[in-house]
Amino acid sequence: MDSGQRPSDQTEKSESTVERDREAAALVGPRIAGRIARLGTETAFAVSAEAATFAAQGHHVYPFHLGDLNIPTPSNVVEASFKAIRDGKTGYCPNAGIPQLRAAVAADVSASHGLSYSAENVAIQPGGKPVIGKFILALMNSGDEVLYPNPGYPIYESQIEFHGGVAVPYGYLEGEHGFVIDIDALEAAITPRTRLLVLNDLQNPMGAECSAAEFEHLAELVLRHDLTVLCDEAYFDIRYSGTSASLASLPGMAERSVILYTFSKKFAMTGWRLGAAIGPREIIEVIAKLNVNDESCSNHFIQYGALEGLTGDQSGPRDIVSVLRERRDAAVGLLNATPGIRCYRPKATFYLFPNVTGAMRSKGLTDVEDFRRAVLHETGVSVCSRVHFGRPQPGESEQYVRLAYSGIDTPQIVEGLGRLKAYLAGDPSDV
């Protein structure tokens, strides 16, 4: 010990060092798990924030950016849920869902798909989105490759990478009547490590729908490469003409498919958070076990509302589709009358994915995000762009934006897209 240093000096110095260490640790904060760096998000919500900021500055915004519904949930669904609350259905319920709802979902999907499901093939979920993560947890090992659509719902890629898989995108091409899967590129992307295929038919953001030939080709690839499929059919019942079909209905596919089912769209129940996984019993049992670990069970009384939705008066869902059809027709007509824009008329979903390459060129813009922001600030029309639905793939040359017409009434569609048309036509008097 230095003769000039007292023991108390050492104690004070030691206490000071400890305090500095504590302060430094507080500044650094907790050590976040490394896997969080692999977790993505829905950047459409960032567009919502931009639109909200623009509106707060006194501007009128036409909200085409988020796929929520501004249509009321059918009254019979609401009343059945309230009755269930009054009847005391406010505690825990079976992890896989109440038996009556599981049976009703099984009957509904069996009838629409030409299959034979029972309650044991159904696990009720707190929304459709949890089916994505639980499908991946149940069937994907670390390092497995999973094929997913891009452009597509961004949570597929996020969940695959977060859980240690390798997300392998496949794309779409412009066909004669709508977008079609680039089957050749999808097939070329399959390797010995490929285990799963995510198929979002009636697709977000493109409104794309598989033809019978596409389904046949996909089924052949699934069987040949021993794949399991997530059939995301969230928009199966948002149908304006024709009949929705499913890959799961093809021979040998039901045994290899988990169907993502949701009440959010058909019954305008987005905020109620209720959906289901339907598939082979052995997979559904694993998903139900994940329910136990994640949320215990889905909301009890809401399930009685959903049961009424499936088994009671069906005028509500019909009215929802009727309103959405009117909105689609108004939007598609105006977009195709706008210089530099071309847009398919999808037979299902509530999304449009117009090609805006010519419109961008007319404004001297090369970045689709610059175009999106210019449209917002010049017209108030708020849309998402292609980049909000996955990392652009090599070779993409055309530019697209996505419009959701589920949360905006027809008069506002006409007014907003009229302003967009005037802006792109160079008529400032109408903007």
Features:
single chain, 431 residues, alpha/beta, Aspartate Aminotransferase, domain 1, 7-stranded mixed beta sheet, 3-stranded antiparallel beta sheet, 14 helices, 12% strand, globular, disordered N terminus
List the helices and strands and how they pair.
Blueprint: H1 7-28, H2 44-56, E1 62-63, H3 75-86, H4 99-113, E2 122-125, H5 129-139, E3 145-149, H6 154-162, E4 166-170, E5 172-174, E6 179-181, H7 183-189, E7 194-199, H8 212-224, E8 228-232, E9 257-262, E10 275-278, H9 281-294, H10 300-311, H11 315-336, E11 351-352, H12 357-362, H13 368-379, E12 381-382, E13 384-385, E14 401-404, H14 410-425
Parallel strand pairs: 1-12, 3-4, 3-7, 7-8, 8-9
Antiparallel strand pairs: 2-10, 5-6, 9-10, 11-14, 13-14
Structural notes for this entry:
- Residues 1-12 have low confidence and may be disordered.
- α5 crosses α9 (281-294).
- This protein has 431 residues and is α/β, with parallel strands linked by helices.
- It has 2 domains: 44-71 and 316-430, Aspartate Aminotransferase, domain 1 (Alpha-Beta Complex), CATH 3.90.1150.10; 91-311, Type I PLP-dependent aspartate aminotransferase-like (Major domain) (Aspartate Aminotransferase, domain 2), CATH 3.40.640.10.
- The chain is globular.
- It has 14 helices and 14 strands.
- β5 and β6 (179-181) form a beta hairpin.
- The strands form 4 sheets. The protein has a 7-stranded mixed sheet with strand order 2-10-9-8-7-3-4, sandwiched between helices.
Quick overview:
The protein is of the alpha/beta class.
**CATH class categorisation of the largest domain:** Alpha Beta
Compressed to H and E, one letter per element, the order equals HHEHHEHEHEEEHEHEEEHHHEHHEEEH
**Residue runs with pLDDT of under 50 for 5 or more positions:** 1-12
What is the number of E strands?
Answer: 14
Contiguous helical run count: 14
User: In one word, what is the shape?
Assistant: globular
Summing up helix and strand content along with how strands pair, one would put the structural category as alpha/beta
State the fourth-level CATH superfamily of the largest domain: Type I PLP-dependent aspartate aminotransferase-like (Major domain)
Described by strand count, sense and barrel closure, the largest sheet is: 7 strands, mixed
Helix content: 40-55%
Strand order of the largest sheet: 2-10-9-8-7-3-4
In CATH, the topology of the largest domain is named Aspartate Aminotransferase, domain 2
Distance between the termini: 82 Å
- The tally of structural domains comes to 2
Instruction: Indicate the mean pLDDT.
Output: 93
Q: What integer value in Å does the Rg equal?
A: 25 Å
